[in-house]
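The instructor's notes for this session suggest beginning with a concrete chain rather than abstract definitions. Hand out the sequence below and ask the class to guess, before any prediction is shown, which regions might be ordered.
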Amino acid sequence: MADIDNSNPGALNWRLSAHPITLVTFLTFRASSLLIYLLGGLIFTTSFVLIFIITILLLAADFYYLKNIAGRRLVGLRWWNEVDPQSGDSHWVFESAPQPNEPGGKIVNPTDKRFFWLGLYAQPALWVALAVVALVRLRFIWLTLVVIALVLTITNTLAFSRCDRFSQASGLMGSGLYSASLARNVGGALVSRLFNR
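After discussion, reveal the predicted structure:
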């Protein structure tokens, strides 16, 4: 067993996490849908419908957990979509936790950050590989499941990537104002505003 006290900060060891339960749950959700898709027919059942339903439920749980819990706890980022009731326009809203130099701000654990971004980008890449396999093998019925998985995972990946980019920009703008950042993507134009917590 590795000595945790002498470990390298940011090492891929879940024991170094500031939120180990959140991290393990995040990684479990990320891996479970892929494992059911890949091994479901060999281990559990040959029923496409059952594998499809279980995989979709795991993807939905992963999407929810990543978007609402893991992103906020592991890297301090949140995003959501708002619809303007008058115009019906959809707006993406990105929020980041206060920076370490701000009141209430804390440093993001490097291990949590590495696991989060690795898991965030690895899963869509694996689903793309599975889409290529489904196309090559001419299994179009399985391709529908892979396309749904790609939509859910790429949505979270793009949203958190934008959220991280906007939090870094807002963090630079607001570093002297001691406030958390909130960025809105309104019709393609970015409007940033700062608010106090």
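Then share the key points. The two ends are 42 Å apart (CA to CA). The chain has a mean pLDDT of 80.
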